[in-house]
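Data card: per-record layout.
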Amino acid sequence: MGRPRKHPIAQTTTLPKKVQGLEGMFDILSETDHVWKALMSRLHISAQTYGFNHTELPLLEDAHLYQNFYRGDKSKIQSLVSFLAAGKQVVVRPDLLPSLLRAYGQGKVYDKVPLSKWFTVGQVVHQDTETLKFHSDMQFGFEVLGTFNHLTEAQAIGVVWEYLQSFGMKDIVLEINSIGTAESQVVYQDALHDFFSSKKYQLCDNCSEHLSGRVLNILRCENLDCQTIASEAPTILDFLDEANHKHFTNILEALDELSVPYQLAPACVGAEGHSRTNVAIKYKSKGDSITLGEGGYHESLMESVAGKNVCCFGFYGSLKNIHKVLELTKTEVTRTFKNDVFLVPLGELAAKKSLRLFRDLTNADVSVYDHFGTVGVKNQLKQAETFKAPVALIIGQKEALDEMVILRDVKSGMQEIISYDKIVEEVKKRLGR
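The structure for this 433-residue chain is written out next.
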């Protein structure tokens, strides 16, 4: 029997002493960054409260999905991170929406459920076409698909607004507009083309190119000169038919009922493939503007991805940008999860006894934070205050031998000794259960 062959990578590659993450990618360390922990946990709570079902999507997709989805935007196609695997061209998802629409169509969910309310979250990656650096984000999305009206649409907007408000975020605005159906857009884009053509040489290079494509994209341009010109352009509301006007009025009234403030924004026209209601939530302060997310109807995108004409409306946001704004504004984010009990074992025997106590408490639906290490009692009690646990349970060598537990009220500092067989019920009593 011959000697085993060495892996070719092991033969040719010398690993550096410290392997670093790829530039442009980022880690989420919720243990040391409780803002990220709050962002993720509250997102799931909001989704559950509003009845959105969690949908997990794959990180890799067939390249044809995104090439078809971005067929009108060469720059986005060029920014795809792709490679050949298993005989197929594969891409790392740069956006959650195409994957979600693909999953909905592939699963033929439209034949099984009349209305789907989906929530998804995950990392997305694309590559800068000039610097070739990676850019990653943690994106989230709320999507409604099937048979629904403006009230469900308002819920998809409301869940995001309530989520952001739970952090006490200030200086954020919800911009809203209607760009009507595809038929309305044809007439409107003709009017925009006539308007911008006479100012072609005042526009940036990208906007000049949009004149021969989706003229609506000029309204999305962030160049100040282009924005100044666009401010005088005709608005879509003058080109909407009666049905689209009524629908837009209905959604505004629904947002009023939900107490969600909004600003009418003619420049809020969404990406290619969007129709009717389009929204964007932005942080605006002292000249800074950071887009936290955008949403709208996208039936034509559904049809191009899944070959099915299904009504769908969704909002997709950037948790990375939300985190950035919370840091920028120095917004204090409180911990979303509070432990009921902080367990303080002192010594090896006490730690073993605490392990059993941990099991007994969790079986009684009492949340416990434990530290089976060598940290001193003072430091552990300080941690109990940080974690806002109302009760600390201390077990030392003597308590372990005597089957006793010291119960300490973290706020007042008062403590008493209680026998092990009565401690669970006493803790529940102290917690009001």
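Known properties of this structure: Residues 35 and 333 are 6 Å apart (CA to CA). The mean pLDDT is 87.

See the next section for split statistics.
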